[in-house]
Amino acid sequence: MNATIIDAINDALHAEMRNDDRTLVFGQDVAESGGVFRATDGLLAAFGSDRVLDTPLSEIAIVGSAVGLATHGFRPIAEIQFSGFLPPAFDQLVTNASRIRWRTRGELTAPMVVRTPYGAGVRALEHHSESLEGAYGHVPGLTVAIPSTPHDAKGMLISAIRDPDPVLFMEPKHVYRSLREDIPEGAYTEPLGEAAIRREGDDVTVVSWGAMMHKTLEAVDNLDGVDAEVIDLRTISPLDRETITESVRKTGRCVVVHEAAKTGGFAGELVATINDEVLLYLEAPIERVTGFDIPVPLLSMEDYYVPHPPRIEEAITKTVSY
């Protein structure tokens, strides 16, 4: 099956709803219209209104309902239309979903998925372009998964749906339809908590995720004479520390790329992890290529905010030349 990320997500939802009658899909406009990006297109016709439901515009109610359903034997898949609307539901993720296993000493769990498109690059309006994965990655008990390819989108979403604990599944909408690749028919899984090495190299380790993975690969391809190893993090929490540190131990240099604001961004956690575990292997300071410490600008001003290949190339060159 040749698929975009949206196709892969839709296929994963169909596959798991066929596989498990306990799965439910609900959120704003997911049933009748198939979702604002059509990720849930066809689900209502295939599985009926008892399992595919439109909800009122209330993010805390959507996620709170998912928590209740998850603790009573269902496997809910809730959609928040844009990740910029997720903060009202942060209370349910932090207060209930992420700690229900701990609170009840394992008597109750919350096997639920919250899907949400995130990130800039489509020139949307305010609250439609945020990248707050670092904040959600700070919550113990909550898995934060971010695919960057159609293959990973399908396999990781199926893994998330089958996971016994809550997963926030953040989808890079900038590349929803701009990438295509062949993916297997039927259900398959990709592991959560494992990074992927997209390109092997010896000179510098470049770490990224989501839509920025493709900007990073483009930048690396543009550089002559630099043998970069590129790591796709795929999961913010739990973090695959071993893959990152083993790569930096080999290369001695590292650049981290993400579109979230720099201050408090997840790059800081990666820098701290590298310093904790492989500091003495570093041959240059770690560089961060990020968004700026401002709200995501509107419309065409996004072009100045989102890291693009020239900024990434400059950071790689600086690190390798140190």
From TrEMBL:
Q: For this UniProt record, give its keywords in alphabetical order, as a comma-separated list.
A: Oxidoreductase, Thiamine pyrophosphate
Task: List the SUPFAM superfamilies hit by this protein, alphabetically.
Answer: Thiamin diphosphate-binding fold (THDP-binding) (SSF52518), TK C-terminal domain-like (SSF52922)
Transketolase-like pyrimidine-binding domain: from which residue to which, for each copy?
A: 3-178
Which domain of life does the UniProt lineage start with? Answer: Archaea
The parts of the chain that form a coiled coil are: none
Keyword Oxidoreductase part of the UniProt annotation: yes
Q: Does the keyword Ribosomal protein apply?
A: no
Q: What is the designated name of this protein?
A: Transketolase
Native source organism of the sequence: Natrialba aegyptia DSM 13077
Q: Taxonomic lineage per UniProt?
A: Archaea, Methanobacteriati, Methanobacteriota, Stenosarchaea group, Halobacteria
